[in-house]
Fold this sequence. Notes:
The complex is a heterodimer.
Chain A: H1 7-21, H2 27-55, E1 59-63, E2 72-76, H3 78-105, H4 111-130, H5 134-153, H6 158-189, H7 194-207, H8 211-228, H9 238-244, H10 247-273, H11 275-280, H12 283-304, H13 308-329, H14 332-361, H15 369-372, H16 375-378, H17 380-394, H18 400-414, H19 419-444, H20 461-479, H21 481-495
Antiparallel strand pairs in A: 1-2
Helix pairs in contact in A: 1-2, 1-4, 2-3, 2-4, 3-4, 3-10, 3-14, 3-20, 4-5, 4-10, 5-6, 5-10, 6-7, 6-8, 6-9, 7-10, 8-10, 9-10, 9-13, 10-14, 12-13, 12-19, 13-14, 13-19, 14-17, 14-18, 14-20, 14-21, 17-19, 17-20, 18-19, 18-20
Chain B: H1 2-12, H2 18-21, H3 36-53, H4 60-90, H5 104-117, H6 122-130, H7 132-153, H8 161-173, H9 179-201, H10 210-228, H11 230-233, H12 239-265, H13 286-310
Helix pairs in contact in B: 5-6, 6-7, 7-12, 7-13, 9-10, 10-13, 12-13
Amino acid sequence: xxxxxxxxxxxxxxxxxxxxxxxxxxxxxxxxxxxxxxxxxxxxxxxxxxxxxxxxxxxxxxxxxxxxxxxxxxxxxxxxxxxxxxxxxxxxxxxxxxxxxxxxxxxxxxxxxxxxxxxxxxxxxxxxxxxxxxxxxxxxxxxxxxxxxxxxxxxxxxxxxxxxxxxxxxxxxxxxxxxxxxxxxxxxxxxxxxxxxxxxxxxxxxxxxxxxxxxxxxxxxxxxxxxxxxxxxxxxxxxxxxxxxxxxxxxxxxxxxxxxxxxxxxxxxxxxxxxxxxxxxxxxxxxxxxxxxxxxxxxxxxxxxxxxxxxxxxxxxxxxxxxxxxxxxxxxxxxxxxxxxxxxxxxxxxxxxxxxxxxxxxxxxxxxxxxxxxxxxxxxxxxxxxxxxxxxxxxxxxxxxxxxxxxxxxxxxxxxxxxxxxxxxxxxxxxxxxxxxxxxxxxxxxxxxxxxxxxxxxxxxxxxxxxxxxxxxxxxxxxxxxxxxxxxxxxxxxxx
Amino acid sequence: xxxxxxxxxxxxxxxxxxxxxxxxxxxxxxxxxxxxxxxxxxxxxxxxxxxxxxxxxxxxxxxxxxxxxxxxxxxxxxxxxxxxxxxxxxxxxxxxxxxxxxxxxxxxxxxxxxxxxxxxxxxxxxxxxxxxxxxxxxxxxxxxxxxxxxxxxxxxxxxxxxxxxxxxxxxxxxxxxxxxxxxxxxxxxxxxxxxxxxxxxxxxxxxxxxxxxxxxxxxxxxxxxxxxxxxxxxxxxxxxxxxxxxxxxxxxxxxxxxxxxxxxxxxxxxxxxxxxxxxxxxxxxxxxxxxxxxxxxxxxxxxxxxxxxxxxx
Lengths: 496, 313
């Protein structure tokens, strides 16, 4: 076994280790440790991705001295390594973009606690990506949930505490359903290792021994993870949680945490239940319908919103709807589109949050549209970032959002039964997206006579650099889409 | 005609006010005088509006909706519970021989557990050796729970003079002179601590282990602090103690298990002796890991109590 095969394990352990050590460090040291560990994991994941491209083989790594069904196991393929790399990049950009805001909004003694939360969040995301064991996934889902609550409420005012309570109730309900699903699945298959469960499930399915528990298990797993990733009817916590928490938290929550759960769901579909069995159960149609409903309802709520942060939050609901719509289409191509949209939305949404915070800074800290007029001129780089993000969300060519919409449309055409509703809702949702994003962009570029504070690039160098990286990343995903789509396809083939 | 339209446009744009110039007589507004009765009436009206019109409890629609909401919620919960019960009735029966759970996984845990992990207590061997990665995650769940409670409840260090006074008042309210509690605690606390330590140290030999033993010790600490007050516990347990204990326990867990995972995955010799089964010093890393888990659990429980009680140690 090559030394590089240890890298997934190193990545998880490094972020855990820095989380544990940060509790006794001061603010500055914790910050640097966090930054360095994310960079190291980024580098490890990049090397791992390159290595797997070279060998074309899956890395199976046993955690301890005992082989898989008895001990724990992690597993890395193309998709996993690439996602780890991507998640690290977004985490890095979100942290640097919101650092200045963090100083103002969080009490100084609690900064090192913030970095602990971020470190453990990254560890749990990596573990969710790499794990090959359903129960390990559940343990790290717990860490993910608790640290997400902490990330919301570390900026202490009434709204964030209320938001954290809402988030916790919904998220724990989701965890509970997930746990019940895992228990039932264990009872009918006798395994916790993903590949073994899939073998057992396919034999149960063909023998028809436990039809009712199998269906209920699929419902519970899907429902629990949908609840945690804010699919439409369970989306009520989104606006407060993303709208009032400090900006790094909002960016991390919207672009990584909800995506981590979707990745776990995709993993369960492919590696636990089996794609064919999942498609044969009619849960996939329900997922499709709620995805479509989310695409419309999220956008409608966003149009009604008068607060820029809450508007972006509701737009997330619509985008999560797209992803579930893709899962619901139930073809390999649609799944590629969904995973592409996970990347594209993660890159764009964190960018919008970071851009919006620059705009509100030059508008007397107010997030209401009336005060934002002309803020694009007062903070040029933030204005450009927000405009690029909006264009990408609406689906203008050159940016990443266009490609994911194109992929969804192509995938919809391939599925004759669901083609019509998918295409119609895609069109309506695009128009609705355009309404609220273009409204905002026009507003921030409407000249106003009112003199406001201006911030130039030289005053906030780190912020400007982050914005430029975000824009670059977005255009990169939009322009080099074909290699990315090929990578996702190869990754899915390795996955199954 | 053109002049008229121009005039109209001007008026629409609010540029020409000449239309009104003659018709209006400008007069200063007189200061408003109110009788006592009207003022009272107005206040009553305002209270009435506040209480009845805008209050959710008084609105009939809200009441009806709330009732409908409750009924629907009960029906939905009943439906879900019914379906889950149906699903459970389809599951394999407990104790059946050919249940799917009775497979090679549990067979190896039961048959080879003792000789592979050195732990007489198979459960401990399972959670701290076979599936140690999950347990590592679980102890980090405790760690992060402590951290979120600290974020939520820890007061800022900077103290204003009146806060110090408040703290003194808080001291007065502590039941520190409760003789019955103190006498009972004098007898119970040492026994509880000893029992907790016994449960942790014998985790690999008899039922128990880090989680249960740690909970026992934590309960003992809470009993002690309720009887004798924070002044006594501050002598040996401050915020720093909490930090040092969780840090060293988790760090040891992290490093020890990293070593074991690394050697295991790379097929290297781990050099950790399993010892003679049944002795206290046996079963390799399980005993130290049990101690770590126990420390983390005890500290977490006590920290929760302190934070909820007064927001600091």
